[in-house]
Design goal:
about 120 residues, alpha+beta, four-stranded antiparallel β-sheet, 1 helix, elongated, DUF3074 domain-containing protein, DUF3074
Length: about 120
């Protein structure tokens, strides 16, 4: 996985506006021989490019734009679970799984921030 912060959206800010993640699959033959797969393991493939950013404020919030602090998460993904699950079944569950994963991640971030503030 490759991650990088994106530059500030304003020349007056020093805070990054978000981050980009790139995840690429590796072929297991590229791993050292000291690392072995568990017996019965199924080799799956997953790749994604994600951009996450805090949207700039849209003024007073009365208009159609996003409110302060809203997060935009853009993602492109390709996956194959391998094994015996037909691809059409794999692909039908991906959007729901992604939405759930994003929600879980944002909840995790909120919990960490709350712990930091409580200290």
């Amino acid at each position: 996985m490759i991650s990088a912060f994106t530059p500030p959206e304003s020349p007056t800010s020093t805070e990054p506006s978000g981050f980009i993640n790139i995840q690429l699959p590796i072929h297991f033959s590229a791993l050292p021989s000291s690392i072995s797969l568990p017996k019965g393991a199924i080799q799956a493939r997953y790749a994604s490019v994600e951009q996450v950013r805090i949207l700039p404020d849209a003024g007073d919030g009365a208009g159609p734009g996003p409110g302060p602090g809203q997060i935009e998460w853009i993602m492109a993904t390709s996956a194959s679970a391998g094994g015996w699950i037909p691809e059409f079944l794999q692909h039908s569950g991906i959007p729901t799984a992604i939405v759930q994963d994003v929600g879980n991640f944002l909840q995790w971030v909120d919990e960490r921030r709350a712990q930091k503030v409580a200290k």
